[in-house]
Amino acid sequence: MQTSPDQGQVADAVKGNWVDRHAPAPWRPYLRLSRADRPIGTWLLLIPCWWGLALAVAATGFRWVDLWIAAGCAIGAVLMRGAGCTWNDVTDRDIDAGVARTRSRPIPSGQVSVRAALLWLAAQALVACAILLTFDRAAIALGVLSLLPVAIYPFAKRFTWWPQVFLGIAFNWGALLAWAAHTGGLGWPPVFLYLGGIAWTLFYDTIYAYQDIEDDALIGVKSTARRFGNAPEPWLAAFAAIAVLGLALAVATALPVGPALVASLGVLAFAAHLAWQARRLDIGDPSNCLWLFRSNRAAGLLLLPFFAAAALV
Fold first, then answer.
1. Which class for 308: exposed (0-12), middle (13-18), buried (19 or more C-beta within 10 A)?
2. DSSP 25
3. Which of 10, 36, 200, 274 suits a disulfide with 243, CB 3.0-4.6 Å?
4. Nearest-CA neighbor of 171 among 40, 81, 267?
């Protein structure tokens, strides 16, 4: 198997990432399989968890266990994103081999066998399960249920033009789980937060999908980018509006007026970032699409200091 960083680098990985530069050579293919060299996906999985926790704290007050919930969500996001990407690459290995951007991934490039990948998936999932078991029973139940959309997502591109919906369902589940870990149950605020997050995923992953639109068309893979063609602007505007509305409703139903006004400033900052992305988008430039996609880490993190300030009001 390939082990040198020059041979094994994945095409769309962050240049000079820590996996290629510093990870032990035998571990590099497995860390690449988990997308450790492309951390943006972990952030996009983690951020809704922190949204749910931060809004719950603002609504009901801080407890010391919240520090563990925040840390557990972070570790779990790394592990479950790694497990999910491993599963995705196992199921998509033939598709990935036919796409320029993905044929350098560990399985189609021959760095990792399917059997080894499945063992790596199981190891990551078991450690994530151990962390989940330290949470409230409601959060544990939600964590188990989250496995269903995670399992389905890789196949969605084969039967629907809207695979990004399935990604959104899986990636934003943490908003429900973290709220439940803090409060012991659910309610309208985390549901609105979850729906807003799904719309946000539709926004950023449509941008991401424009990188592969030509290859996807050749091999018959569906996506919202192919569905919208050269006119994604109205759709992206609608997704952004729904995302902002969902977040605004989550804040309004969770908090009293004073804290809600403070938290709403974060929602406005988030909205401004999505508007900036829409203005800068060039769907014909893959590097522009990847750059804007990655900028959604900053968009999501914008909310957190305002939610924290709302907890202090």
1. middle
2. G
3. 200
4. 81
